[in-house]
Amino acid sequence: MHAHTSRSGTKNPRTRLGVICFVVSLVLLVVLALCSIAIGSRPVPLSEVIAVLGDPGASGVAAEAVRLRIPRMVLGVLAGMALASAGTLMQGMTRNPLADPSILGLNGGAAFAIVLSMATVGLSAPIQYVWVGMLGSCIAALGVWALGSLGAKGPSPLKMTLAGAVVAAMLSSLTSAVLLPRIDVISSFRFWQVGGLSGARFSLIVPLLPLFVIGEVMAVWCLPGLNALAMGDDLARGLGSRVRLVRMGAWGASVILSATTTALAGPIGFVGLVVPHAARLIVGSNYKRIFTLSLVFGPILLLASDLIGRVLTRPTDVEVGIVTALIGAPCFIVLARRRNLQQI
User: Fold this and answer.
1) Where are the transmembrane segments (predicted)?
2) Using one digit for the tens of pLDDT, what is the confidence trace for 253-280?
3) How far is 174 from 260, CA to CA, in rounded Å?
4) Cβ atoms within 10 A of the Cβ of 299, count?
5) Which one, out of 108, 129, 251, 273, has a CA that is 20 to 30 A from the CA of 195?
């Protein structure tokens, strides 16, 4: 009885903290979403933003500015959710606290494949990019896994991280090699390559919405298996978890979410690294809770980064991929210096 009370006493405060953080984060997300619509080269008062949102037929300069910024905000929310989800899945299935789509090469693979298709085949729409991006992400993922599995002891968190860094650097160099001789591609897609939300349009976002939904549904299906994997493959199998199927599902969901986001917004890094760690500090090691909180933290980080980029150099923008890199790089260094890299 005493042990049960003790466990409940340690569990309930963290659960309550998680619920409180989730509610507060939702409120903050709504505020940031409104600020994302209001702030720009021409600021629009929040009262006018709310008025335009309540009256789709409104006209005028403010109404036009609001309508142009809404797709940017929506893409920020979708991309933040997708990248945070992919990072959570990758950290769980590899038991690697440094895993995320950019560090393990998925973003780089998608970016290289898309840029190559732009330069050679002339593809020009995200609905076309996404399939090429998925192929690039899959090849990059296989390359990282193959490199990280070299040696008698097989894959380990540190080896996978190093392999991901090698593959990501190689893909970045190849992407530059493709772009440099093609001035037309550089001028047209240089902001996309950095990673940004400024090119968001509903005509581009809506056709890819089903892929976001499919990726998130697959991610939710994998969550119980990730909690089992955290205890080790052998124990997970002993508990009845289908280890290989869970890993395949998690890889598949990560590729879909990363490639779709990259097709629309470019290769935005570090969101999938920082967000799951922030959620883990609050709710512990349960991946269902980490995932739930990450779905809100991801859009918060991306919208906040986008707003910082708009305010710092107004009236021009600093693309969101640059801001997330400035935030995420120090976090990566701190995490890389931790001693217990073999565990989450």
Assistant:
1) 17-40, 73-91, 103-122, 129-148, 160-181, 202-230, 250-278, 290-312, 318-336
2) 988 998 888 888 888 888 998 899 889 8
3) 21
4) 29
5) 251
Residue spans per domain, the chain: 73-336
In order of 38, 46, 221, 306, the CA distances from 63 in angstroms are 11, 12, 41, 21
Which residues lie below 8 Å from residue 324, measured CB to CB, with a gap of 6+?
195, 268, 269, 270, 271, 301, 302, 305
For residue 313, the Cα-to-chain-centroid distance in whole angstroms is 25
pLDDT, tens digit, for every residue of 275-327?
A: 998 898 888 888 999 999 999 999 999 999 999 988 887 777 788 888 888 88
pLDDT of 74: 94
Place of tokens 């809506």: 206
**Predicted pLDDT of residue 7:** 44
Contact yes or no for 118/185 (Cβ under 8 A): yes
Alpha-carbon torsion, ordered 147, 152, 158, 160, to 10 deg: 30
